[in-house]
Amino acid sequence: RMCWGGRRRTAQQAIEAVPALPRRGQGKPGLARMQNLMDHLGNPEKELQCIHIAGTNGKGSLAAMTSAILTAAGYKTGLTISPYVVDFRERFQIDGEMIPPRTLANLTEKVLDAIDAIEAEGGEKPVEFEAVTALALLWFAREKCDLVVLETGLGGRCDVTDIVPHKLVAAITKIGYDHLEVLGDTLDKIAAEKAGIIKEGSVVVNSPDQPAEAMGPILTAAAEAHTSIITPDKDDLTLLRGKRLENRIDYGGYRAALGLPGTHQANHAAMAVEIALALWREFGYDISDDAILQGLAAARMPARIEVLRRHPLLLLDGCHNPDGAKMLAATLTRADFEENLIGVLGVLADKDYKEMLSDLAPCFAKVYTVTPNCPRALSAEDLQKEARFHMDAEAADNVQDALRKAIDYADENNLAGVVVCGSLYLAAEARPWMLKEAEK
């Protein structure tokens, strides 16, 4: 790390120093490095009551719904989400507000000082996600949050968020194939890692959509922790008719208009309801039915099937694996756009983009391909060659160029609108331009 000659770092320098930390540790996976960092910070994690969320897809959406419900119930609620889309501060929120820049700079300074001390003692240097999580826990403890909703980074058993001792609820969203190189190559190996967040004394809330082969390790972990598993019953869950891209559900009498579009969000809403009911029933938190409905309606997430404008449509989705692409395709199909949309697509070369393309092809009359702003990106030209097997495709020079062309093409051909998707890197770059466009 650079030495600032004894001066305190500016907010910007402090914030840039965290992503400059190593991404992966050298030693065996485990919590020793993270525990050492928390010890140097005075163990703020011991002051927090947590709801812990693991899974492959939908962790962020479930975390957003859960924290919105708790905030609506009058509890001061901390929330961590990753990855952020546009602003690093999205990762740290209390009651839906991002951490103020000055607070972020001060706490970053504290965490970097602790890392300096660890290095001076000859200890192993913490990695980026450990520093980010430590910073969040430090902020939540200082602000005396009543409850904290924590999203795991990767896996569960060795995930750094597992450092928190007081875990009221462990929630596991649908498990799929992602990060195989770290977590294992079968669903039950991946599930065994994720189920590591289940601890004695916590209630387990499971996805109603959990694949059968992922259930073994979840049941085993719950049995070993002497805890019960709550799985929402699909029969209690109804999708209600609403306007196009409106998401109305009824879950066991809880009739809500969800703030997050996408038919798959119904499953997360049912899980969020069960988390709230478990907190009330098992731990005595005062969460009214009204707070549950308010929270489900209020939850928002950037770039998760985000509707920035309805007519003509401007929609942004950071889907970056086949499961995410299928969810987006299902949402667009249910909204009945019938190939009336133009796509702007950009993907990373290490993702299963061929399957993503075949899932998304029926939704689009034409796509413009772009190169996302990431070293692992597939070039616009290579994506265009692959996309041509499925639909009319044209490579664009950059994101702004692709958006301009897509919006003009939709306009000239009287189409319903434009959908930008394929990668969170693309979403981060496109969102500011799309917001400007949406305001016109």
Description:
This protein has 440 residues and is of the alpha/beta class. 40% of the residues lie in helices and 16% in strands. The protein has helices at residues 11-17, 32-40, 59-72, 101-120, 128-142, 180-183, 187-194, 212-224, 265-283, 289-298, 322-334, 353-360, 380-387, 399-412, 424-439, and strands at 50-54, 77-80, 92-94, 97-98, 147-151, 167-172, 203-206, 229-230, 237-240, 248-251, 254-257, 306-309, 313-317, 341-345, 364-369, 392-395, 417-421. Strands 4-3-2-5-1-6-7-8 form an 8-stranded mixed beta sheet. Strands 12-13-17-14-15-16 form a 6-stranded mixed beta sheet. Strands 9-10-11 form a 3-stranded antiparallel beta sheet. Helix 8 links the parallel strand 7 and strand 8 (229-230). The longest helix is centred in the first third of the chain and has 20 residues, at 101-120. The protein is globular, with a radius of gyration of 22 Å. It starts with 10 loop residues before the first helix and ends with a helix.
Concise synopsis of the structure shown:
The chain has 440 residues and is of the alpha/beta class. It has 15 helices and 17 strands. Helix 8 (212-224) links the parallel strand 7 and strand 8 (229-230).
Please supply descriptive tags for the structure shown above:
alpha/beta, eight-stranded mixed beta sheet, disordered N terminus, 440 residues, 15 helices, six-stranded mixed beta sheet
